UniProtKB/TrEMBL annotation:
<dbReference type="InterPro" id="IPR013096">
    <property type="entry name" value="Cupin_2"/>
</dbReference>
<protein>
    <recommendedName>
        <fullName>Cupin type-2 domain-containing protein</fullName>
    </recommendedName>
</protein>
<dbReference type="InterPro" id="IPR053146">
    <property type="entry name" value="QDO-like"/>
</dbReference>
<dbReference type="InterPro" id="IPR011051">
    <property type="entry name" value="RmlC_Cupin_sf"/>
</dbReference>
<dbReference type="Pfam" id="PF07883">
    <property type="entry name" value="Cupin_2"/>
</dbReference>
<feature type="domain" description="Cupin type-2">
    <location>
        <begin position="32"/>
        <end position="99"/>
    </location>
</feature>
<dbReference type="InterPro" id="IPR014710">
    <property type="entry name" value="RmlC-like_jellyroll"/>
</dbReference>
Amino acid sequence: MMNSNFWLLGIHRKLIATGTDTDGAYDFIAGHVPPGIRTPPHIHHQYAETEFVVEGELNIVTEQGTLHLKAGEGYTIPKGMPHALQALGDKPAKIITIFAPAGFAEVVKAVGIPGMVEEGMPAATTDMALFNTLSSAIGDETIKRPGAAFTLA
């Protein structure tokens, strides 16, 4: 893999293993989520997402409520479950994410902005039109009008 370090939607992602390495079984990605960064509410229709917190704290917000994860804790978001993620506190959340089956890493490679954590978040922003097109192609959906359950702190 030529470059495995990207920034996407404010989150640094280091691609550890992708579908190319795992025969399509899963993507294995290390993440660095700066304080206060949150994902837009979204749904993965084709794969499950497992989040494991290595350092810091992370909220996973679903229709059922908010799950607060601390270092050493994890949760699997089943495919089809609307959710959003948010780093909490004043320190970054360091996470390991597994997407199974693989697919999301290809979006990261195509749309992510190359860069290392130590360099900080780049000034350039994600090409949202391309991100939405590629995400839709792998079965992802950004929820345009999230309900009250998706109100993030």
